[in-house]
Structures are given as structure tokens and as C-alpha cells.
Amino acid sequence: MKTLSELGDLLDTAPRNAAVRFRVDATQLGDGYHVTELKLAQIKGIDCGGRRNDWPETLMQVLDGQGTAPLTARKLAGILRQSIEAIPGLEAAPLSVECAPGNIGLSRYTIGAADLAAGQVMLSLEAEYALCKPSATGCCAPAKSACCA
Fold this sequence. Notes:
Elements: H1 4-13, E1 19-24, E2 27-28, E3 34-46, E4 52-63, H2 73-86, E5 95-99, E6 107-117, E7 120-127, H3 133-136
Parallel strand pairs: 1-7, 4-5
Antiparallel strand pairs: 1-2, 3-4, 5-6, 6-7
Helix pairs in contact: 1-2
């Protein structure tokens, strides 16, 4: 899932009462997790090559649960729709999920695989990694950026 809109579309295709669960590596967030907030951030940055850039990010923070029932596809889709209506642009910006199994060591993830089986939607979270944008975009030739020489 690249955006909140894509996540909402997936949830709309799932059975209404399907449990939605999150998995980080081999660990599943506990049932009873809580979506604490959805945030739209407008980032202004400068990279190691001196290039300035602006981009939006959507962040969904999830608090690990303590044993009660997980959200259903219908309930989570409703939360997403309400949030999208309240904050223009939230649905289209690249989506990251902030969470921590056991609520220790908050990290950022992207949603990788989404499996719909056995009456549930399992969202697998993948770790985000540090990235040198000039190197990743091929702009890091020694003549263009001293940082990568």
C-alpha cells in the first residue's frame, strides 16, 4: 500500500467484519491495537548534494494492543474515510506506519503484503531504510556532488 487511499480501497474489498491485523517481521501487533493518529506532514529538506526538495508524507501511528478485539475492515475503513475528509491530501501522500511491538522502540514502516484469508486482513509492515537521495537517483557523480566522491 503506497497511500491511505489504496489501504482504504483494500479494506473496502474485504468482508466488513474481517479482522485487520498488523505484522512486523514475525511479531503480530496485539489485538486491541489503536490507531492513535493520522498525520499529513509537508517536509522541506536539503540533501547531501545541496538540492532542496519538498514532499508530503502521511503517517499512521498505531499503538500495540493489549488483548481485546482488533478493528474490523469496516471500522478501520470508516476511520480512514473520516480522516481523509477532514484533512485534504491525506489520502494521496506516501504512507508510513509508525508503531512498535510492545510499544517500545517506535519505528517507521511501509505496508508491504496484504493478505486476505481466513476471515482476516493481515498487513505486513516492512522496515524503512535510510537513503541517500542523490545516490538513489543517479545524481551522485563526483562532478555533481562532492559528498559522494
